[in-house]
Amino acid sequence: MAPFLPLWVAALQVLTLSSTVSATRLPIVGPVHFDVITTSVPLTDANRLDPFAKDGRSRSIMASGYYPVSACRRKHQEPYMPTKLASLQDKKFGAYGLPNGTFGSLTLETCDKIAKSNSCFSKPLPLVLFSGALGTSRLLYNSMLQSVAAAGYLVISVDHPYDADFVEFPDGTVITGVDISDEELESALTTRVEDIAFLYQQLGGNSSLTDHFFPGYPHRHRFAHTAIVGHSFGGAAAAAAMLQIPSLRGGMNLDGTMFGPVITAGLDRPFVLLGHDNKTQETDPSWKATWPRLTGWKKEYEVRGSEHYGFSDLPLITSVLGFQKQLPNQVLGSVEGRRMMKLTVTYVTAFLDFLFKSGSETKLEHASKDFPEVVQVA
């Protein structure tokens, strides 16, 4: 299976499900501590043309924020994704048997009114930037990132228009993804990194933007403790962004082949490679080439029984809807969906805790006991 095959392609080839679904809330999993506010924000870089649009327009992106709150007065069921985008995803998946209305039926329980200021956050919270797989909406990681935020992290995910399958803007405009050839991957990677750098720069100097992502957050402009995580092509983008943005403190690549100058230049800050079954340095030449050039703290893990699409919300969605067993193992692997989500969130937050909170590997060591299917390769 190609490392950057869009998340939905293989699944679509095998889904043969019933024609109706009922409303389903996706649960927060992992080390839950806080309720979470979710937001979506469009941003336009007036100083950069969109290389995909080719019509002279400025580059615009969509981003989602996930904000942990200590005192939530009111919760509500938030749609998993906007109605138009949910319909587009349903049509795409429905052509192969996914029940109509699936994505529109999914919800997240979020906070929409804070009882008081987040007084328990006397110090700035660490920030986590996230970039997803090629041909995949940022919203197909909604539940995973909500769970990471619930562990006490500010999280922002980025959609890269024309690279993602569909990106919906607040005015209803939808940008459909384009086919990106192997020869165009490094150019697309450069665009992703520029998107990430623009977002990060804006956060450091725009208090109103911070308020949009994290309403009521008391520590504006204070994002010195920032890490980046990515899945698939987003994992390559995470490493490339660290090379370009020295202030990023660490990164994590969830199952992504490496691309670009980082393969030869390496990184001097903490970095984790977390691969699916049989994705290791021995099977991915880009990992093998990069590994000796990672001169900071580093770990490599392999999740036995998992597949490439396991590092997304798809395992959890199929599990709570009750049709994971109808999919062959080569789509999501043999790890049960809720467990796969908990595993991913646990390792991501354990790494972040090591990086920003404790400096100790204790939680990573405990995770290996809780999830024996995860093997430390290096």
From TrEMBL:
Keyword Membrane set for record: no
Reply yes or no: does the keyword Lipid metabolism apply.
yes
Residues making up the signal peptide according to the UniProt record: 1-23
**Keywords per UniProt:** Hydrolase, Lipid degradation, Lipid metabolism, Signal
Q: What is its EC number?
A: 3.1.1.47
| GO MF, one example | 1-alkyl-2-acetylglycerophosphocholine esterase activity
* Protein name as it appears in the record: 1-alkyl-2-acetylglycerophosphocholine esterase
Give the organism, scientific name: Cucurbitaria berberidis CBS 394.84
